[in-house]
Structures are given as C-alpha cells and as structure tokens.
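U., I forgot to send this yesterday:
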Amino acid sequence: MTIGKVVGTIVASQKDDKLTGTKLLIVKQVELDGSETGAFVVAIDAVGAGEGEIVLYASGSSARQTSLTKDRPADAVIMAIVDSIEVGGKLLYDK
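Result:
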C-alpha cells in the first residue's frame, strides 16, 4: 500500500467495458507528513474518495483484489481514506 493525495479526476467516455461504472482519480504519492513526492497514478476509486483527500492505494496485481476491481484491467485502486497518521506517538496527519 502507498499513501497518496487525490488531486484530480479522469473522465473517459470510450473505455473497456470492464471499466464501465468505475470512477477514475488522479493520485499523487505523498510522504507520511503529507508532502508530495511528484509521482502520479490513475486509480479506480473503490471507497468514494474525493479531491484533496489523503488515501491508501494499491498497485500492480494487488489492485485487482477488491470486490470492485476483481477481473478488471486495473493497475491501481484506492482502497481507504485516511483519517489520521501517527508515527512514534506523534500525530503527522489528521483529517
């Protein structure tokens, strides 16, 4: 799993039938403190995330393990919306 921030959406009216009904979001990878790293990924949203939210996403074959992405041509999936991040007793992020 990787921590990311939703920074945008993708709309594709022409796509593989297996992607019909999915919401595609642009996610920018972030560090534990929320600072951006610069790497982007397009992910299927399995949890109803919105722009600006910090999320957990999986990529590669793990992206096809959710009920929404099973047997779909997905390389990344958002599977959690982060409420808080705490490391060593220090709160690094709080929604």
